[in-house]
Each structure stands twice: as structure tokens, then as C-alpha cells.
Design brief:
single chain; 501 residues; 5-stranded parallel sheet; globular
Length: 501
């Protein structure tokens, strides 16, 4: 086959890329700058080009434009760094096949090269526009738009590449990851890149409804099937026909419903409650959970046969603490997004504030980071977000004059880095925004039941009465939370604020 042309002004990178591809069985040729590479490209025939983005005299972006002008179908893989992600987006718009971030992993690099070379000319012609849209969605989201995954992390990009590859199949997908990592965003990512992208995307929270209502919600019912069934009702599976259905918190589904779901996955037809004939459906099923689902199988809480039906394509999003290189990108993205939503001017993030963000443990993952950045933006009354605006563990609160005061060294400062600060701020809340034990009024001698009740009520207050969000913060199912609230109501004790799902 024709060689792959590698272009980079750094000797070490040229050697690393060429040796990686040689080891994979590809012939290579190297060039030290864009001018030399263009001269070689005009004289020789290459299978594809791999070029660095930032080089002296002439950039990789300019080389890309030159190559596309000479040979539009030539696949070009851009090599970029975090600081040039915006330029990578522009490169994709100008026809780059894909991009890879420095420092790269060998398997990710060869995967992208294999993918480029194994595509037909027609597929490559359509891949660049689609890839450009993908990078834009990962990097920039305007107000009111559907959120997309924002990342420059190699592991995440590799996982998204896998998701992109299987998107056009009908195989079921099981996403098992911690709360707040973006499981629904990944599900939408798969749907939007599938042949069903023009069809409906229907999301169902399996923990949000009692079992009897969930069965009707999923599979539908006929008029008169039960008291209150005054008309025929199409279930979510029927509503998702020719599209995708997301079964969120699948681990919370009761065993009898699991049996009925298994039949849908086997036969691709649903039986409405009170119906006489099965109704065929054409749906792609994506299930998500923040639990280790196989442990539920071992405990007898989840059907083993259903587990294997769902686990055809297993995917896992890493927690934010394992992709800390994304924190600067995400923090800046959330500031811009919420500035647009709140009609405020976007501000920069100080180096000190960014250091706090990068050393924090992020138990709530990306969702927690988004909340912190929205809060910091709204509290910031200057051109730059400072550590006190974050209101996080170990960071001093804003004093009366509104000027930032760094946290003193010691236990509080340590908490900013470990995420385990045990002290409370002046407002009775710890740095994560959650109430401390003292603010809750917890004291020695209280029963565990009363402590639990106070914790639940305070969490609901912090989440604005949102039961679903409070359940996630407390790491319990919404069904468990509802049962607790019903128990408190029977005792005549309810929060003094309105609640909602």
C-alpha cells in the first residue's frame, strides 16, 4: 500500500507516530514542516496524511486546506493539544477526517488510522462533515440547545469512537456509570449518530413511577383495562417506534416488569394491558444505571437473562476525577453556557480557582461541576472567578466587601484538594453547598431515624424540592425516597416547602 505521510516539527513526536504505525504494519514517510510536506504530497502518492496542528512558518490547518484543494478525498488526521481544541473544530470543518490529542495512546492512534483507511471514498466524504458536527457538539453548546458531551480526554474520545461505531446497529446498549457522569448524554449521542436520528428519542426513568404505573407507561393499555383507563394509551415503546428508547435507572425495575421487558427485547412486540394482540415495535433500547448491575443479578434483584440481553454493548463513562484534564475545558464551557442562559457576560477563571477545581474530588461528577460554575458565575462581580466564588470545601467565603479572600492553610485548605473538608462555612454549609451536621441540628443522643429525616429534608431543600435530584444526591432510589416521605407524612411531619419530581 501507499505510505502514510507524518508531519510534525518535533522529532520525538515524528518518531513516536512513525514507530507506532510501523508496528501496526503501515509504511510511513515523515516530514518536519508543512512546506516540505506539501512539496512531498505534490510529488508522491500517499494513503493518508497525519499532521500536527501547530508548526512554525505554516500551520497544519493551512496544510490541510492545501491538501484538500489538491485532493479532496485524501483523509487527513490532525494532531492537536488541549490549547488548540478550537482550531481542531475549524480543521474538521475544513475536511479533516478526525483529530487526536497529544499525548496520544497508541491503540487510539492506530484505531483512528485504521478507521480512516478502511472507509470508502464516499464514506470519507460524509465522515468529515459529521465529525465536524461531533466536535462542535462536544465543545460548544448554546442556550436552550440539547446538551452534548464536552471532552478532550483520550479515553473519553476512544469510548465515543466506539459508541459512534455501534450507533448504526440495532444492538442494545448498557451504560453503567456513576451519577452525574452524563449517561443520558451518551445515550443521545448514540441515537443522534444512528440511522434512527430522525426518529423519536424517548427517555423513561424506571425509578420515578410505581410498578403499576410503569407497566402502563412502558407498554400502554386499552380502554377499560383498569379503573381510570378511559381511553387507549400508547406506551413509551410504541411512542419510540423507529427511534430509540432510554430506560434510565433500569436496576430499579421490579422483577415482574423485567420479565415483560425481556419478551419485548426477544420478540420486538409489546402487549398492552388489556390488549388482545401483540403490537410490533421497531426500537433501539439503551439502558443506564449507576449500580453494578451484575451484583444485582447475584443478589437475585435482577434477571440474569435480561442482563445479558441488555449487555450486548457495554459502555462506561469514567468519573470526572479520572479525567481531570477535562476540568478546565468543562469549567469554561459551563461558564459560557450559563452566562448565555442568564443574560450575563462570560468571565474568565483565575489560576487559583482553576487549581481548586482541578484538585477537587468531584463526587457529583460533571453535574456537580456544572452547578459549581453556575453558582460561581452568578456570585462573581468582577472580570474573573476567584476561589471564594466557588463556595467549595476549604475555600473562604466572600467577605462583606465582596473581595476574594483565599482560604488559610491547614485543614480547610487541604479539604479544597481532597474534597473531604470537615469544617463548615459561616452560612452553616460546607464547600459543596450541602448543609453541615451542625446546621442540620444533629446532636449526640438523636435517633438514627431523626438524623435520617433531617438529612432528607435538608437535601430536598438544597435541591429546591426536586425529589429526583435529591434521591441522586442521597444515592437512593426515588422509590425509596417516596416511601420515606410517605412515612413522614403519616406521622404528620413534612417539609415546609413544595416538592416536585
Amino acid at each position: 500500500m501507499n505510505p502514510i505521510l507524518i508531519v510534525d516539527d518535533e522529532v520525538e513526536m515524528r518518531i513516536a507516530m512513525s514507530e507506532t504505525l510501523k508496528h501496526a504494519g503501515y509504511p510511513v514517510e515523515v516530514s518536519h514542516n508543512a512546506i516540505d510536506a506539501l512539496n512531498k504530497f505534490k510529488k508522491n502518492v500517499y494513503a493518508m496524511v497525519v499532521t500536527d496542528m501547530t508548526m512554525p512558518k505554516r500551520s497544519g490547518l493551512e496544510l490541510l486546506k492545501d491538501i484538500k484543494a489538491l485532493k479532496p478525498e485524501m483523509p487527513v488526521l490532525m494532531v492537536t493539544a488541549y490549547a488548540t481544541i478550537d482550531t481542531a473544530i475549524e480543521a474538521m470543518k475544513n475536511g479533516a477526517f478526525d483529530y487526536i490529542q497529544k499525548p496520544f495512546k497508541s491503540d487510539v492512534f492506530t484505531f483512528k488510522v485504521d478507521r480512516a483507511l478502511n472507509m470508502s471514498k464516499e464514506e470519507r466524504a460524509h465522515a468529515a462533515p459529521r465529525a465536524a458536527a461531533t466536535v462542535e457538539e462536544r465543545s460548544v453548546v448554546g442556550p436552550g440547545e440539547i446538551k452534548e458531551i464536552v471532552t478532550a480526554d483520550e479515553g473519553m474520545l476512544h469510548m465515543l469512537g466506539m459508541a459512534d461505531n455501534i450507533a448504526r446497529s440495532k444492538a442494545t446498549v448498557l451504560i453503567q456509570s456513576e451519577s452525574g457522569t452524563g449517561k443520558e448524554l451518551l445515550a443521545r449521542f448514540i441515537h443522534n449518530r444512528s440511522d434512527r436520528a430522525d426518529g423519536p428519542f424517548v427517555a423513561v426513568n424506571c425509578a420515578a413511577l410505581p410498578d403499576t404505573l410503569l407497566e402502563s407507561e412502558l407498554f400502554g393499555h386499552r380502554k377499560g383495562a383498569f379503573t381510570g383507563a378511559i381511553q387507549d394509551h400508547k406506551g413509551r415503546f410504541e411512542q419510540a417506534h423507529a427511534g430509540s428508547i432510554l430506560l434510565d435507572e433500569i436496576s430499579e425495575m421490579a422483577l415482574p416488569l423485567q420479565a415483560k421487558l425481556l419478551r419485548v427485547l426477544q420478540e420486538y412486540e409489546v402487549d398492552r394491558i388489556g390488549g388482545k394482540e401483540p403490537i410490533p415495535v421497531d426500537v433501539r433500547v439503551i439502558a443506564t444505571t449507576n449500580r453494578e448491575l451484575f451484583s444485582y443479578v447475584e443478589q437475585g434483584k435482577f434477571r440474569e437473562d435480561l442482563y445479558y440481553r441488555l449487555n450486548v454493548i457495554p459502555l462506561k463513562l469514567p468519573p470526572l476525577r479520572e479525567r481531570k484534564g477535562d476540568i478546565p475545558l468543562l469549567a469554561d464551557h459551563f461558564v459560557k453556557m450559563h452566562a448565555a442562559k442568564n443574560a450575563r457576560k462570560a468571565v474568565s477563571i483565575s489560576g487559583e480557582a482553576m487549581e481548586v477545581l482541578c484538585h477537587y474530588n468531584w463526587r457529583g461528577n460533571v453535574r456537580e461541576l456544572e452547578n459549581v460554575m453556575e453558582r460561581a458565575l452568578l456570585l462573581c462581580d468582577s472580570k474573573e472567578i476567584q476561589p471564594p466564588h466557588l463556595m467549595m470545601s476549604g475555600v473562604a467565603l466572600l467577605p462583606a466587601n465582596g473581595k476574594a479572600t483565599p482560604a488559610k492553610a491547614g485543614k480547610g485548605a487541604k479539604g479544597a484538594r481532597s474534597g473531604k473538608d470537615k469544617t463548615a462555612g459561616a452560612n452553616g454549609k460546607n464547600g459543596s453547598g450541602h448543609s453541615s451536621a451542625n446546621a442540620l441540628g444533629i446532636a449526640v443522643g438523636m435517633s438514627m431515624k431523626d438524623v435520617e429525616k433531617k438529612l432528607i429534608f435538608e437535601t430536598l431543600r438544597d435541591t429546591g424540592g426536586n425529589r429526583t435530584q435529591a434521591a441522586k444526591v442521597l444515592s437512593i432510589s426515588i422509590r425509596t425516597l417516596r416511601n420515606k416521605l410517605n412515612e413522614y407524612a403519616a406521622e404528620g411531619d413534612l417539609p415546609d416547602f413544595e416538592m416536585q419530581d
